[in-house]
Amino acid sequence: MTLQNLRRIYSVFFFALFVYLLVITDFRNLKGYEVSLFLEINPLVSIFSFFTSGTIYKGLILSLLIIIPTLFLGRFFCSWICPLGILNQWISFFLNKKETSENQEKNEYRKMFRFKYYILVIFAVLAVSGTLQIGLLDPIAFISRAFIVSGFPALYNWGELIYLKQPVFQGGILITLLFLTVLFANRFITRFWCRVLCPLGALLGIMSFGSIMRIRRNIEKCTDCKKCLLHCQGGCDPHSNLRVNECHVCMNCIASCPEDALHYGFAETRSSIHQSFDISRRRLLETGVAAFVLFPMMKSSLTGENQALADVIRPPGALTEKDFLRRCIKCSECMRVCPTNVLQPALLEGGFEGIWDPLLINKIGYCEYNCVLCGQVCPTGAIRNISVEEKIGKKPYKNPIKIGTAFFNRGRCLPWAMNRTCIVCEEVCPTSPKAIWFRKEEVVTREGKVKKVKRPYLDPDLCIGCGICENKCPVLDKPAIRVSSVGETRSKTNQMVLTANK
What we know:
Elements: H1 3-23, H2 37-40, H3 43-53, H4 64-73, H5 77-80, H6 83-95, H7 101-106, H8 115-129, H9 139-151, H10 172-184, H11 192-197, H12 199-208, E1 214-217, H13 252-256, E2 262-265, H14 281-300, H15 321-327, H16 333-337, E3 343-345, E4 358-360, H17 373-377, H18 388-392, E5 405-408, H19 414-417, H20 424-428, E6 436-444, E7 450-458, H21 468-472, E8 481-484
Antiparallel strand pairs: 1-2, 3-4, 5-8, 6-7
């Protein structure tokens, strides 16, 4: 079996594995196989989360399985394992089927391929400065977010294969359009994302530059026919002096060469030299300076980090907002496993820095009382892996985890505003004793009659902010009871009553 055929088998296997892990996340215990496996083996996630937090989350140690082989074997991840890279290659194949000189021209190296290295520098500077934004363009986070937010919800119409109810996600159209744009760009440049935009590809290209195993060209056998460019995935110019940092180790050039002038392995006597990095140091410096300017601009806007915001309600187990923003990579894995669809990709509720990070929108769902799935699948520890006992405050824990506090709007509450009986919020409240309770009060009707109405009250010490009362409130358009982030356990300052430090 040739290396090219072996790569094809592996690429199909890893893409199928990626989809399989996404599909089954909320159905069965994986018995050791983490649903966030592809994010945990991602070197970009592990290295940049270390830059922002100063720590390596335990699951990210798996990234060494990619880092170490890349140092010796080259940038194999992009064509052998990466699901977005594999999908881009399949789309490119169907959009550019003809083996013509046009395909050869498309697969030649272009200076625009430098752009991904500048993107990597921007994210690196931001990470060192304290904000983790790689999730915007990291390929694994990008395709995970696209499949979860815009792809899998469509499967509800196919026999409810994935979800128990029709899920909805705010900003889903934007995420879908971005994903489709990336795929359609392959019509003009093969693997446009991988060659031009991908920061992970840039990082792996840097790591692979000194690899001892690489594509080699025999200068005596080569006739410069350029047939090796017909199916080249990296645009690395194997017909001349190959650019190692751009080579995806797809082996297509070896299979296409009619003169058997290319091979993968160690250098031989007649092997050609390889190209150096085609990157402008001045442009790198300018990019770094621009990123340093961008960082304080991001911090100067109103965010959940510098000001308590009512609508920025994070999942139970989430770190403090500052640490949360330093770890969350916007992968949407937590949204995928949320059984009630309450976790949503943020837009600008918490500022630009928090775009697509998870937050709770109780109009859509609520935080299930005994559910802790979001912390189990978080690949970076932005959401701690807590137990049910810790979440609900069962022994040995003294207090439950609060993610917010509910407040009544008496002007919209049926018993308060219209003297009508309604006990929905109290019935669904999951705490014991219930945070919502009633008092029978006498009211005078318009006709002058006296009647007794049960009016609801809330005990803020018992409320955990789960949002089920808001979600089930019969006042549908704007519920009469709404949850705010105040009182959340993870913050010492976002409290209704400040206590002196002991």
